[in-house]
Design goal:
The protein is an alpha/beta fold. The protein has helices at 14-25, 40-45, 47-64, 80-104, 162-165, 182-193, 213-225, 279-282, 317-331, 361-366, 382-387, 419-427, 432-437, 447-456, and strands at 3-10, 30-34, 108-111, 113-118, 121-126, 129-140, 144-146, 159-160, 174-178, 197-201, 229-231, 235-240, 246-252, 255-261, 263-266, 270-272, 286-287, 290-291, 304-306, 346-348, 353-358, 371-377, 393-399, 405-412. It has 14 helices and 24 strands.
């Protein structure tokens, strides 16, 4: 006899497990179909283990620059295997944490691969065996994987994706990173900090191309200062892997160049996991690799919903989590607000870090808005000077007529911990003058937000 649930979630990434827990809190009987580790890509192969790697790189950087702080350290060296093992241990601990939350909330982990086979029916395949699970509601939360380019096929050895980049057996002496989005620049920073010679190749005119141009220029300057080679407006046309290493053919404005490297990391974005879910058979509509949903994540098939990387919006863990909560609250008959995709923070954890939300200056001007722009460099921050982290700035953009906070763009140490102030302020429709009059603690990096706002309104004190 088929198991019966109020809700079955296919996939246990941040959107999936958060949706499951919230549904359980609302009194639903919940099952989660997951063939791999609980927590999905984010906890096991994405957000969390990469931050552990980056922390190791940061600690090593502190040790190698300890003299700048009046501390003498000798013979600091990298144990690459131990760095990787620590990262995997952190990921394993987080996955065990999800197992605990499932037990606490009485959520069933249904091991296997899930496929929608009819109204309220999920076929689960595990080691060749199939079973049918029944549910009043089904949420698809299957996430995404590394996108492969035809001219850059990932072989897992010389041309790798982010998963292999986290668990290489040996540290490469040289690496070409193709793509300079968050994944690309984070791994570029990590490997460069540990001593690998890194070259970034970016097709667009600026690295981190989704960011404000001022942020892109500052990051390029900082990464070059750290010893990373950067090629923009360039394209990898092919990679020859026949020899010991890789010969990377790069098309640039000045003609073809060949770069030799041990490893090529393909970081050219992600591809949604939609295969085998029964979408075509069930007539569930998709467009450009995304499932079409309404504001509460309902598909065109009654009782089937989709959240996370496989639907509209940025492919970010915190977005998937928010979507999961909204989706199950709507299912439960509550009346949640639709998610405001214009107020989603984005964070990149290279060094210096990047954090942003809202419109860039270019986007605001393209909308024909009259704007006020304020910028405060960390070189003028007492806390940044004391910490030896003067690279970067906070940039804020306000509507000149109505005072609406249109966007904020930060680059510097710990800015990923600062962006939430802007997200909350924008949610509460806070004006620039309210930020200026809100007393910020001194000395902190966060007071740069107030200083940048004061600069936008011609009231800055410390510039």
């Amino acid at each position: 006899m088929a198991s019966k649930y109020d809700l079955v979630v296919i996939g246990s990434g941040p959107g999936g497990y958060v949706a499951a827990i919230r549904a359980s809190q609302l009194g639903m009987k919940v099952g989660v179909v997951e063939k791999a580790e609980l927590g999905g890509i984010c906890l096991n192969w994405g957000c969390i283990p990469t931050k552990a790697l980056l922390k190791s790189a940061q600690v090593y950087e502190y040790l190698t620059h300890a003299k700048d702080y009046g501390i003498n350290v000798s013979d600091a060296s990298v144990d690459f295997k131990a760095v990787v093992e620590r990262s995997r241990g952190v990921a394993g601990g987080m996955s065990k944490g999800i197992q605990f939350l499932f037990r606490k909330n009485k959520i069933d982990h249904i091991v296997g691969f899930g496929k929608v086979t009819g109204k309220g029916k999920v076929e689960v395949t595990n080691e060749g065996k199939k079973e049918i699970v029944e549910a009043n509601h089904i949420i698809l939360a299957t996430g995404a994987r590394s996108r492969e380019l035809p001219n850059l096929p990932i072989d897992g050895k010389k041309i790798i994706g982010y998963r292999q980049a986290m668990v290489l057996e040996n540290q490469p002496k040289s690496m070409v990173v193709v793509g300079s989005g968050a994944i690309g620049v984070e791994f570029a920073y990590f490997y460069n900090a540990l001593g690998t010679k890194v070259t970034i190749v970016e097709f667009m005119p600026n690295i981190v191309p989704v960011e404000d141009e001022d942020v892109s220029k500052q990051l390029e300057k900082s990464l070059k200062k750290a010893g990373i080679d950067i090629m923009v407006s360039s394209e990898v046309t092919s990679v020859d892997t026949k020899g010991e290493g890789c010969k990377v053919n790069v098309k640039t404005a000045k003609g073809e160049q060949v770069i030799e490297a041990d490893i090529v990391l393909s970081a050219v974005g992600i591809q949604t996991n939609l295969e085998g879910l029964g979408l075509e058979e069930m007539g569930i509509k998709t467009e450009k690799g995304r499932v079409l949903v309404d504001d509460f994540y309902k598909t065109n098939m009654d009782g089937v919903y989709a959240i996370g990387d496989i639907v509209k919006g940025p492919a970010l863990a915190h977005v998937a989590s928010a979507e999961g909560i909204i989706c199950v609250e709507a299912i439960a008959g509550h009346h949640p607000e639709p998610l405001d995709y214009g107020n989603i923070p984005g964070c990149t954890y290279c060094s210096p870090e990047i954090a942003s939300v809202g419109l860039t200056e270019k986007e605001a001007k393209a909308q024909g808005r009259e704007i006020k722009v304020g910028k405060f460099p960390f070189s003028a921050s007492g806390k940044a000077s004391a910490a030896g982290a003067k690279d970067g700035f906070v940039k804020v953009i306000f509507d000149a007529k109505y005072g609406e906070w249109l966007g904020a763009h930060m680059i510097g140490a710990n800015v990923t911990e600062m962006i939430a102030e802007v997200v909350v302020a924008r949610k509460l429709e806070t004006t620039g003058h309210e930020i200026i009059k809100a007393v910020h603690p001194h000395p902190t990096m966060s007071e740069a937000i107030m200083e940048a706002t004061a600069a936008a309104y011609g009231e800055v004190i410390h510039l």
